[in-house]
Amino acid sequence: MKPWETKDRKTVLDNSPWLTVEQHTVELPDGQLIPDWSWVITPDYVIVVALTEDERFICFRQVKYGVEGVTLSMVGGYVNEGEEPLGAAQRELLEETGYESPDWQLSGRSKPRDRHRASLSCTRGALRRAPRFGRSRRTGTVISHT
Fold first, then answer.
1. What's 98's DSSP letter?
2. Are residues 37 and 56 in the same domain?
3. Is residue 23 pLDDT above 80, yes or no?
4. pTM of the model
5. Is the peptide bond before 17 cis (omega within 30 degrees of 0)?
């Protein structure tokens, strides 16, 4: 099967390093041209599933622009330049909740969008090690699971 081919690209929005939007002209295997294929580029990111020693999930409450009210969120965030996904997961857990854990497992990677990866990291036995020093819009929360 012949792959799709990018014939042309132009940047229409550059808010690096967080967001870049390109407009591509793409040729399909049958020769048909799509002149306006939008292409979104963002950094890779991690999602953390963390459990305390007593088997409770760790998440956090936050207020975000564009979303009404307080939301309950999984721990996670962008992978910094030169950082490994597992290191990013450990950093995000500490930054967002004040928890650390000795037992980590990189559970998988996926490509939910065209040009970046998501990594899922899991940890058990997380203990609060430091006061939360993240942004003031976040409040660490521990919830029970069944």
1. S
2. no
3. yes
4. 0.73
5. yes
